[in-house]
Amino acid sequence: MMLKIWLATVYMLVAMLLKASGAFVGVNIGMAMTNLPSAADIVALLKANQITHARLYDADAHMLRALANTGIEVMVSVTNEEVLGIGQSPSTAAAWINKNVAAYLPSTNITSIAVGSEVLTTIPHAAPILVPAMNYLQKALVAANLNFLVKISSPQSMDIIPRPFPPSTAMFNSTWNSTISQMLQFIKNTGSHFMLNAYPYYGYSSGNGIFPIDYALFRPLPPVKQIVDPNTLLHYNSMFDAMVDAAYYAIEAYKFYKVPVVVTETGWPSAGGGNEPDATVQNAETFNNNLIRRVSNDSGPPSHPDMPINTYIYELFNEDKRPGPISERNWGVLYPNGTAVYPLSLTSSEQDTSNASSVFCVAKDGADSDKLQDGINWACGQGHANCSAIQSGQPCYLPDTLQNHASYAYNDYYQRMRSAGGTCDFGGSAFLTTSDPSYGSCKFTGSSTSGGFPSPGPTSPTPGDSAPLASAKWYMTLTLSALMLVSLLI
């Protein structure tokens, strides 16, 4: 008995430590694509871009196995099709938890479960069984001693708030009063969070010019165009903040306070049809880069400045199989081969500048592909460069482009041979730079003060993690592994 109490206490402490790491920006991973990368390649892309939080729209076994031992926090999802069965059967809920959560913990860092997606607005007939489904899943977590580690909620659309502005008067659609009240009570009782899908793109494009586009894109507004809630006199610098605040006011209308709002989807499409003029690469780049800066300042919306807004960008890849308008297929920030749809820093961490004086040999932008391939072949062969890091599944394989692979091969050759007269030319396809090309777990020679050669094996903490935090994550994973084994014996 005492061992069970101790076990629960440790789980609770682990959860508290995970929550104490500040606001994050994660990504949604949809899979309605023609050229879907393998699960291993998707995870390699997450690591290369220092993405620490990922949301799956189901509980795909391949992805959950590939995410093992990465430390990436994972949100798995009960699909809308599964909600009906789980909401009517505790045994079905228990089986779902055992198969899709307990089977992967602690190796795969599953921290939350999204029950359905916008259930109230997409399948309203399921509203009566939504909270029962959440309760049955929670009881299954408790039975597995996982309730302190994994939290349950259900993502809802902004459409459940008919009039989100001004935020101070926002109310949930009264049609779902009973369900929302029960959901908020569940969230409060379990220490979970309210999941909100908030899209300024739709708020702006359907607003008939009421708000300026700069307001939707996080761009500064001139004094004469400041957006102010007339009831509270709070100033709103972005539609995103106003949407989140609308959710807070709607929640508090039910007398629930300090229930954190997590934005499970937001983003901006990079292309659209003739009737979608605001779906452009420029706007998508502006929105998502500004979003990352906004979330990373660790502050909340005007009415709750002390409650940071953890957020998931929609989405990692363009999903070409999605139906609907052209914009529906163009929300991704990366192409399947790992190259960016537009320049985007998916992490707020500062670039390591401790070796700004180092010199690196990299491939030129726009260099002839034949020259790049010849250069790679020579560097990795006769030049004796160590090219293992750009092989499939290794830290520098993604993005899977000639330029990326050539840069790594050129630099490895140059760093090894420069003292013996090696040059950085490769038929005119290379040049020297003091800008460190390292990214994520892909480290280029010269990026460490020791001057040693990078290993394609285990890597040091990424720039986004302090060494103590990275050590804590490793220790917690190790501890949880031991605890899970102990709990099986109780």
Brief account:
By secondary structure, this protein is of the alpha/beta class. The protein is built from 15 helices and 13 strands. The protein folds into two domains: 21-334, Glycosidases (TIM Barrel, Alpha-Beta Barrel); 360-433, no CATH class.
Can you characterise this structure?
Residues 359-444 form the X8 domain. By secondary structure, the chain is of the alpha/beta class. The chain has 2 domains: 21-334, Alpha-Beta Barrel (TIM Barrel), CATH 3.20.20.80; 360-433, no CATH class. It has 15 helices and 13 strands. The strands form 3 sheets. Strands 5-4-3-2-1-11-10-7-6 form a 9-stranded parallel sheet. A two-stranded antiparallel ribbon has the order 8-9. Strands 12-13 form a two-stranded antiparallel sheet. Helix 5 packs across helix 7 (127-143) and helix 13 (369-380) crosses helix 14 (402-417). It is globular.
